[in-house]
Design goal:
Layout: H1 2-5, H2 10-15, H3 25-33, E1 50-55, H4 59-71, H5 78-89, H6 101-112, H7 118-124, E2 129-134, E3 145-148, E4 155-156, E5 159-165, E6 171-179, E7 181-182, H8 183-188, H9 193-197, E8 203-211, E9 225-231, E10 237-243, H10 251-258, E11 269-272, E12 297-302, E13 306-314, H11 325-337
Helix pairs in contact: 4-5, 4-7
Length: 344
């Protein structure tokens, strides 16, 4: 997939493929959703691309990050702190352009009130947050389980648009992603971001990459609406939606922050563009907000990109990640030598 993305005419190459399909798509979807890994099923649609992510690109998620920080990861304080934080911030942040003079004035105001935060710095300051979400070949795809470590008691899905960028920094297509987040961990310290974000099966991407072609371009996604649904085995249901028209920075700015003279990606990269929705709806006791339970079915969908569906489970119970770059090289060398290859 990384090599395909580097072709200027990637979409045409796919359309002109003359061979017969190896699988029936409906059967792939069925086996992916029922968890039958002994039948052909969908994988994450990327391979050698690094998975990068941008944080705090929507006002709603920025405010929630500030709340996590002020709560020190304690969900029991969230409702009280949310009331205080939103009272101070008000609705003045919706139209602010990060890095602008107006944003700097807000920074001075909040600092004077003792409300400045590292999350407001990347939300309103000149530079966006860009971090590495997952190692190469570790993401999971449509129908796979997504992992929530047992040490976390406050966590949530993060529905996002994922841009597929080639080695030259050009966006070739897009898909959907779930940047699974542990709010109690990151809330204790932003330096625990790796522990909060990068765990087994904590990065879901799919269902497929839609390549840019004809009238489907990057501009088609600037107002894309993404919907989140969580359905629990306990009968709980959560719904939310937001539009990429509300993103605080243009896609080009996020890409330039990730790749440029300061950093290159010879195999390209997948870029999560920021969560559109931070669920706060109470699930159990009043004021405790939302957190996942095992068996939650998470659906992230949009008109142009379809639906990414996954079911949550304990990270420690997920199949361990074993097929990495070394295993891939071994697999390819066996194929080249004509020996029966095992994918492990």
């Amino acid at each position: 997939m990384a090599e395909l993305m580097d072709h200027e005419d990637a979409a045409e190459l796919v359309l002109q493929a003359s061979h017969e399909p190896r699988w029936n798509l409906a059967e792939l979807v069925e086996s992916s959703l029922d968890g039958n890994r002994n039948r052909p099923h969908l994988l994450s649609p990327i391979d050698l691309q690094v998975v990068k992510a941008c944080g705090v690109t929507f006002v709603e998620s920025m405010v929630e990050r500030v709340i996590e920080e002020r709560c020190a990861g304690d969900s029991r304080r969230a409702a009280e702190v949310r009331k205080t934080v939103t009272g101070v911030l008000g609705g003045s942040l919706d139209t602010l352009r990060p890095g602008s003079g107006e944003a700097q004035e807000v920074k001075k105001l909040l600092s004077a009130q003792g409300m400045w935060s590292q999350y407001l710095e990347v939300g309103l300051g000149p530079d966006p947050e860009v971090f590495t979400k997952a190692p190469v070949m570790s993401s999971v795809g449509f129908g796979s389980g997504v992992g929530i470590p047992s040490f976390s008691s406050w966590n949530n899905p993060e529905p996002e648009l994922v841009l597929i960028v080639d080695s030259g920094g050009k966006v070739r297509g897009a898909t959907l992603g779930n940047d699974v987040n542990l709010r109690d961990v990151e809330g204790r310290s932003a330096l625990l971001l790796g522990m909060a974000k990068d765990n087994n099966a904590s990065c879901a991407i799919g269902p497929l990459i839609r390549l840019f072609h004809r009238d489907f371009t990057l501009n088609s996604l600037r107002t894309e609406e993404i919907t989140l649904t969580v359905e629990g085995a306990d009968g709980y249901r959560l719904e939310g939606r937001n539009s990429l028209a509300r993103i605080s920075r243009p896609f080009e700015e996020l890409i330039a922050a990730a790749r440029g003279s300061h950093h290159q990606y010879p195999d390209g990269f997948a870029l999560f563009t920021g969560t559109l929705f931070a669920p706060t709806q109470d699930r159990d006791a009043e004021g405790l907000g939302f957190t996942h339970k095992p068996g939650d079915v998470v659906t992230i969908s949009s008109p142009h990109l379809g639906a990414l569906i996954n079911r949550t489970g304990r990270t420690e119970d997920m199949d361990p990640w074993t097929f990495g770059i070394t295993a891939l090289f071994s697999y390819l060398s066996q194929l080249e030598m004509g020996a029966p290859a095992s994918s492990g």
